[in-house]
Amino acid sequence: MSERVSQSEENVSLRDTLISAGLAAHLADLLDQMPQRRLKLDPRQIFRPEGFSGNEVMFVRSGILSKFRSDGRGGRQIISLRFAGEGILPRRGSLRYGIRPIARSEVLVGDAADFQRLVDGHPEMQEFFLRLVERNEAICYEWLLNTGRRDCLGRVAHLLCETAVRMRAEPSWMEIPFTQQEIADITGQTSVNVNRVLMDMERDGLFSRNGRKIVITDWDALCRVGSFDPTYLAIDL
Amino acid sequence: MSERVSQSEENVSLRDTLISAGLAAHLADLLDQMPQRRLKLDPRQIFRPEGFSGNEVMFVRSGILSKFRSDGRGGRQIISLRFAGEGILPRRGSLRYGIRPIARSEVLVGDAADFQRLVDGHPEMQEFFLRLVERNEAICYEWLLNTGRRDCLGRVAHLLCETAVRMRAEPSWMEIPFTQQEIADITGQTSVNVNRVLMDMERDGLFSRNGRKIVITDWDALCRVGSFDPTYLAIDL
DNA sequence: CGGTTGTTTGAACTGATTCAATCTGTGTGG
DNA sequence: CCACACAGATTGAATCAGTTCAAACAACCG
Predict the structure, then answer these.
(1) What is the rounded average pLDDT for all residues in chain B?
(2) In terms of DSSP H, where are the helices of B167-232?
(3) Which strands make up the sheet holding B56-62, listed edge to edge?
(4) What pLDDT sits at residue B11?
(5) Following DSSP, what letter does each residue of A142-158 receive, concatenated?
(6) B190 touches strand D (CB under 7 A)
(7) Longest CA pairwise span in chain A (Å)
(8) Pairs of CB atoms within 8 A across A/B
(9) Among the residues of chain A, which ranges form H helices?
């Protein structure tokens, strides 16, 4: 599909990221030239509160955005992630979720109407975004299986695998972008337990850690623990 | 939006159901006239196994379809439901989930290509299905919050509320279409616990039961327990 | 240096699972 | 109409995975 883009590279252009995600160059140019604001977001500051208008497109240039919902009692569930090159499409009405960057992120925000015009005019682009929507649906189903049926080890392992693939991490290592609290918010657990799971997995020889940086010593075993099969993340078939 | 269609009525036409879901009559006619097979499905018989081709459209005329995934060890997670009038759109490649009717169901199956032609030719129809896709995404997010953050009582209450709305049940009562095992498969629990939750809720005066038939005595309280807010299920805004 | 944010650890607790048995309702065939 | 089979619902007891609360520790940053 696409050549590997280093995870450490901070200044990839949106154009390049879209192209590496499978969009034709001339269409990526069109999106790149759409009227847009470029915003730098500080990590963990709420960018859009729950209930905000969905009348805008967002593309992640670098970093990670999360969609989240809060339950009544201080809890928070992260329901979706957008890595660099991925986007949040417009929705009619208001969003039922909030948007919060995970790491320091750069985002392009455009007008829903402009985006709609572009997509309507280019069936190939429509096709591209349809695929992304399908991919997001597949991810959502995977997460439902994760929170619904897998045990704590499986949940975290699956998330790590998915993250490694979506970040296009080097085969051997990656910098985990999440705090343990965020891993808990994604997998429906508590940070305390996530911590214990991470230590268990390290003890079991799945990877070794140094702060957020982990060296995956046994990728196959990690996939097995998380029953992870990456095919659902592929965009080109 | 739409007039109430009785849940007991078995022989509603797809056309009517689509219209009541918000599709213009002449477009509903077109879908109705598309080449299609009509199938009657027995409850709980797997209709499409996991990994089946996604090269077809399905519309539920009556009954309920479920998308499910099995974990390795006998467990099963239901990741999505389609009630009468709802459909499963084509996907490129193969499905990562299986399809299984909940109740006795009648389904229309058409060819992906035929469907695509229709949609491409009618922007209004495209708009309609886009909205349904967005609705399904909203439901999926709601389920993630459900399995991830709510306790067993909240999960079941939320499911009951959602089901009542999507079945267009009478305000006062409904026939629960699920076995307790299926409720467990949806909410990420065990059937034993679901049973206990149901008895608790009955004891708390949220509803009274007679077999699968429940009379909801306190709808507001049920909504509160499940922190259910039906706006995400609306199609027309 | 002090403040802040995130990680690690322990101990007590509890919500939910597991396993196993019983009960109930429904449909089938004799 | 009864006997039987079968699927689903109900119940109890033991167990355990994961939470809760609280405290200590580490890393980072102005």
Answers:
(1) 90
(2) 180-187, 191-203, 219-225
(3) B36-41, B105-111, B56-62, B87-88
(4) 55
(5) HHHHHHHH--HHHHHHH
(6) no
(7) 54
(8) 85
(9) 14-20, 25-33, 112-121, 123-149, 152-166, 180-187, 191-203, 219-225
pLDDT at A13: 74
Q: What was the pLDDT predicted at B2?
A: 36
Q: How many CB atoms lie within 10 A of CB A171?
A: 9
Q: How far apart are CA A24 and CA A17, in angstroms?
A: 11
The pLDDT tens digits of the residues spanning B150-191 come to 999 999 999 999 999 999 888 788 999 999 999 999 999 999
A30 vs A26: CA distance, rounded Å: 7
When pLDDT is averaged across residues B111-127 and rounded to a whole number, the result is 91
A150 in contact with chain B, both atoms CB, cutoff 8 A: yes
Closest CA to A177 of A60, A64, A14: A64
CB contact under 8 A, A92 and B141: no
Kindly tell me if the per-residue pLDDT of B70 is higher than 70. Answer: yes
Under 8 Å between Cβ of A66 and A105: no
Q: pTM of the entire structure?
A: 0.93
Question: Among residues 52-71 of chain A, which lie with CB inside 8 Å of chain B?
Answer: 67, 69, 71
Instruction: Give me the pLDDT at residue B237, please.
Output: 55
* % of residues, chain A, pLDDT over 70: 94
Q: Counting Cβ atoms within 10 Å, is residue B236 exposed (0-12), middle (13-18) or buried (19+)?
A: exposed
Would you call B141 and A75 a contact, using CB atoms and an 8 Å cutoff? Answer: no
Query: Which of A76, A93, A136 faces B237 most closely, judged by CB atoms?
Result: A93
Distance B68 CA to D5 C1' (A): 29
Interacting residues of B215 by C-beta distance below 8 A, sequence separation 6+: B172, B173, B207, B208, B209
For the CA of B67 and the C1' of D8, the distance in angstroms is 22
The amino acid sitting at A104 is: R
Tokens of B112: 């992906």
> How far is the C-alpha of A200 from the C-alpha of B21, rounded, in Å?
50
Per-residue pLDDT, A236:
67
pLDDT of residue A56 exceeding 90: yes
